[in-house]
Write a structure and sequence with these properties.
This is Bisanhydrobacterioruberin hydratase. Its EC number is 4.2.1.161. It is a single chain. It is built from 11 helices and 4 strands; from the N terminus they run αααααβββααβαααα. A two-stranded antiparallel sheet has the order 1-4. Helices cover 65% and strands 3% of the residues. By secondary structure, the protein is mainly alpha-helical.
């Protein structure tokens, strides 16, 4: 009788491979590979993106959509592992509704130019459907959720008031895009018709981001238990490692193109991570120890 594949791989019996087991495995994977995920991947990603923009890579590798998507997914793992235990029915409803909104508003933006201003993608960010990245939530959701978590930590008791919490998080999400969009435009990920005053980005884009950020922040605020999030943040040191990756990757890209205001904003996010004791990624990967 051939051996059971699960036993050969050291896996538990199928009936034991439940959600709790998967969450524990993902948690352990991230904990033991923090440096690789939070530092090596964004540094490598920045180098590959810049080499692609400068036409230093073979065509098959330059802005390869699968490399881009896989790299982004890996850098998102700390956030996914951190939030996964908190995703209940309400959170699932919020995520599904927000995904529908994200696809809808992006399709409207690509086809009509509203509310962000006329733009088009210059690089395929993974599979594209109707001109919209199929993995759009993977790109958009973490920008909002990272901002939400960082603001909860920075605001402390002030975060209890929605009149403080919500506008501050919305403003932070827009500030994140003040870092992201100029770097993405410089790389050629997308471009705006007629360019724009802020490193090739029109101010209409940020008006649109106020709308999208408000919708997304409200959805997360409704769908996620804030007290449970704070408790998880206390017990999960890597939960904001994706924000660490964001600072490294987009800070480096903007610096390479001389976009110094976005670089300074990335530095402010890095400062926020330091202040909240979240910029504590181990200094060496475990395979160098």
């Amino acid at each position: 009788m051939p051996p059971d594949p699960t036993e050969a791989l050291g896996l538990p019996a199928p009936e034991r491979m439940d959600r709790e087991w998967l969450e524990a495995r993902l948690d352990r994977l991230v904990r033991t590979n923090r440096f690789t995920i939070a530092v090596v991947f964004p540094v490598t990603g920045a180098a590959l993106l810049l080499a692609s923009a400068l036409e230093l890579l073979p065509p098959a590798l330059a802005f390869n959509p699968w490399l881009v998507l896989v790299g982004v997914v890996v850098m998102r793992l700390p956030l996914v592992a951190g939030v996964a235990p908190l995703v209940d029915r309400e959170a699932t409803v919020a995520l599904v509704a927000l995904a529908a909104y994200a696809y809808g508003i992006e399709y409207v933006g690509v086809t009509t130019g509203q509310p962000y201003g006329p733009f088009e993608y210059g690089v395929a960010l993974g599979p594209m459907v109707g001109g919209v990245p199929l993995a759009l939530p993977v790109f958009f959701f973490p920008l909002v959720l990272n901002s939400y978590l960082l603001c909860l930590l920075l605001l402390g008791d002030l975060a209890r008031s929605p009149w403080v919490r919500l506008p501050v998080v919305v403003g932070t999400v827009v500030a994140v895009d003040l870092v992201l969009d100029p770097g993405a435009v410089a790389l050629g990920f997308w471009s705006y018709e007629g360019g724009g005053a802020f490193y090739g980005v029109p101010w209409s884009n940020y008006r649109g981001w106020v709308l999208s950020a408000t919708v997304a922040v409200a959805a997360f605020d409704w769908g996620l238990d804030r007290e449970a999030l704070l408790a998880r943040l206390d017990s999960c040191p890597f939960m904001l490692d994706d924000m660490v990756s964001f600072v490294i990757l987009w800070g480096a890209v903007n610096a390479a193109f001389g976009n110094w205001i976005p670089v300074a904003l990335a530095g402010l996010f890095g400062t926020g991570l330091v202040v909240t004791d979240r910029f504590d990624v181990p200094t060496r990967p475990r395979w160098m120890k």
